[in-house]
């Protein structure tokens, strides 16, 4: 499923219809049956796993993203929870590898710098530590998480040479708008996924028309059915106060605001902005909002398919 409705004021993934009849049936299950069902569900459904094992209440679009199949592209505003959700996707991928009979899964996370890539592995490690309390993690290695069955999550800096030679079952490119020589990097990643058929997941904010995400959302690959697409403005994020966004709009001006927070490409040429100047003007990655945001009224958990319905019924 791919909903791209930028005009919606709040996350349109939240309004997927929900069938109460499903819940009625599940409510009749006994305790042991519920547990068995949940155990199985957590293996196949990253959303159930994130909620039941890692204790994560996901935003509606994040649930849809976690269930997306195949190559997936996310272009989103700042602070919507991209890193958190790709980390969960990778964490689930390696956590259930043994149960699925593919214990040696390898997920790669590539970001412009190694430091950025390790932000993702750090978030994944936190989820795994919670979900797998009996597993010992070597905490001295920020660059790699290896689970006892051999599944690994590896952080790599954005250089084509570093991703060569792996066999990967998932590859994630983070902050793709700032990857230099992105074409070369993607050309190197593709063969690492070739034998496993694993997904390539590309996540970024819009930068310019040279951006690898641009063709997928607005350029020549816009109709390519092999991509699942998510386009998420920051105003859909319940944790970011509207007042903050209004202030940013005034500060940055419409054009830069649209790009940083509305997931829209706005510059007609790549040379229009000085990247360094822009980056300096933007939020640091570890920025946190001072006041908790007033969350818009939402029904939780929302149904993004049967998995969420079962998870909700089984967990309660
Ligand atoms: N569903 C969620 N519930 C609560 N906190 C979340 C959720 N998703 C993300 N966050 C938190 O919001 C902050 C920004 O998320 P992050 O993934 O770093 O955003 P992005 O990568 O899009 O800039 C982080 O502190 C993250 O832990
Ligand atoms: Mg991020």
Q: What hetero molecules are in the model?
A: adenosine-5'-diphosphate, magnesium ion
* Biggest sheet: strand arrangement: 3-4-2-5-6-1-7
Give the N-to-C terminal Cα separation: 27 Å
Which band does the percent of strand residues land in? Answer: 5-15%
Please name the CATH architecture.
3-Layer(aba) Sandwich
Please give the oligomerization state of what you see: single chain
CATH classification, class level:
Alpha Beta
Q: How would you sum up the global shape?
A: globular
Q: What's the helical proportion of residues?
A: 25-40%
Total count of strands: 7
> Which fold name is given in CATH as the topology?
Rossmann fold
